[in-house]
Each structure stands twice: as structure tokens, then as C-alpha cells.
Amino acid sequence: MSLDAATLTVVVINFRGADLTARCVEALLADGVPGERIVVVDNGSGDDGVERLRERFPTCVVLALPENVGYSRSANAGAAALPGEAYLVCNNDAFARSGSIGRLLAALAADNARGVVVPRVLNEDLTLQPTVRPVDTPAVALVRASGLSRFVPNRWQPRWSTYWDHAESAEIVAADGPVVLVRRTAWEQLGGYNPRIRMFAEDSDLCWRAQKLGWHIWFE
Fold first, then answer.
1. Could you tell me how far CA 1 lies from the centroid of its own chain?
2. DSSP strand pairing (114-118 vs 216-219)
3. How far apart, in whole angstroms, are the C-alpha atoms of residue 143 and residue 161?
4. pLDDT tens digits for range 45-74
5. Phi–psi pair at 22, nearest 5 degrees
6. N or C end of the chain: which has fewer CB within 10 A?
7. Stated pTM of the model
8. Whole-angstrom Cα distance, residue 140 to residue 7?
9. Which one-letter DSSP state was computed for residue 167?
10. Ranges of H-type helices in 17-65
């Protein structure tokens, strides 16, 4: 299996945010993703965004859904519209920096056990936007509710709290998902995102189900 930009499917979700979506797509193109490998899913915006995006990006697939079906189902529809060897689902307010797409693909290709790869995310001022977090088990909930989260050693943070420094690549258990890369075989086994989750927690659910199937989750 070849994992490169030519076999990657990128799904960008748009809902009444065509200007942000255009900026997101421009960043993907600048980082080497071919236009024909990008699917913009308009989630029933009801404005002129679909026409504007189709005119601006004629090589991209712009899929217009008749109504807002939620994040999970719209992402799944985008992936179904353009099969690939891996699926990168991207919020429209996340902008790829130079070399980031290639590095994500290399991280996925480096280990066949990796089903999901997520990147480090920075704010516009280049400060860290923490995304890696634990799965909310009763024990984790107790640590967080007690106020002890900040005192958990950094090496235990990804599994027990949300204060990890995100300073190195590592296997993790879950992450928030402004940008998520999923291997094709894992995506097919999972059936994509859980369509019963309209919005929020679809990313942690994806990670949890992937691990249940034996896949590793990787932070790059």
C-alpha cells in the first residue's frame, strides 16, 4: 500500500464558513495535496458557499448535502465520495503548515499497527493547543475532579490528565480531532465515525473503537 498525497483522501467539513474553508483548502494545496484528492463537504449551509468553493477550486470534489447531518455523517459522506488509502478529516479552521501532511503520512506508514495518527496543533500565535487527552474512565474522572490533574507527572499525563506537554511523538489513547488521519483498512473496519454521534466526542469514540479493534493511536 502506497501512502502519499496522491492516494490520500482529505475531507474538509464546511458549514456556513466558506472563507475559512477556502483558507484550509489553500493550505492543503500549498502542502502538496492534489486538488482532486480533496473533498469539501458542505453540511447544508444554505448559502452561496457551495458555488463559491466550486468556482475557486474546480479540481476539488465539492459535495453538497441537502441538510446539516452532523459532523460524523458528513465526514463519512466525504470519505465515501472519494476512496483513498488513508483518510484525513480536517476542520475548516485548521491550516496545514509546510511539510505537515507528508510527516503525518510517514508516521502512519512507519508502523502497520497504527490505525490513527493525529498532529500537534498550534494556535495562530504558535502556542500549543492541547489536544491529547485520556479516555474518560471513572478513575480518570476522579483524578480530574479532585484537582490533582496538574500534579500528574508528564510521563503519565496522556493517560491520566490533559496537561501533557505534547513535546514528542508517542502512542496515545485519545485526542480531540481537528485533524485526524485514519488508515483505509482501519476506516473500513470502523465504518468511519459513529453516525449516531452528531457532534462532539466523535473523535474520542473513533480512538476508543480503533483500539478495541487492535489499532494503535499515534501523536506526531
1. 21
2. parallel
3. 8
4. 999 999 999 999 999 999 999 999 999 999
5. -60, -40
6. N
7. 0.94
8. 38
9. -
10. 18-30, 49-56
